[in-house]
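Hi V.,

Quick status before I head out on leave. The structure for the redesign project is tokenized and pasted below; the design run finished overnight.
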């Protein structure tokens, strides 16, 4: 099993920055890729960014150029640096770890609110 703990959410003004962290523990050797998802009330959860064990990252178009995802193997921690934040509905950001065979794990989420 894999346990994920997120941190770093909060309230920030439009144009500001936040850095989210997700630390994995347990059977981290089984993780094939990790990602950040977000979900605002009444909407579907969407993947914001992901990183494969090869190091390849992917971003949803709406955050390209503003968000940067990094994974530090030594700390089993994934970071999402968010800059130039846009005011929108508050969302919960979730960390996800995929271990293959149709199995993934989720953190409990961290709230991000961007005020105008």
């Amino acid at each position: 099993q894999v346990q994920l703990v997120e941190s770093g959410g909060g309230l920030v003004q439009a144009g500001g920055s936040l850095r989210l962290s997700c630390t994995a523990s347990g059977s981290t050797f089984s993780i094939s890729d990790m990602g950040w998802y977000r979900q605002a009330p009444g909407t579907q959860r969407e993947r914001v960014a992901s990183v494969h064990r090869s190091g390849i990252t992917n971003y949803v178009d709406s955050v390209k150029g503003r968000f940067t995802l990094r994974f530090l193997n030594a700390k089993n921690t994934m970071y999402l640096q968010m800059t130039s934040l846009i005011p929108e509905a508050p969302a919960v950001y979730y960390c996800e770890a995929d271990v293959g065979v149709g199995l993934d794990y989720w953190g409990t989420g961290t709230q991000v609110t961007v005020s105008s």
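Above is the designed sequence. The mean pLDDT is 95.

G. will cover questions while I'm gone.

Best,
W.
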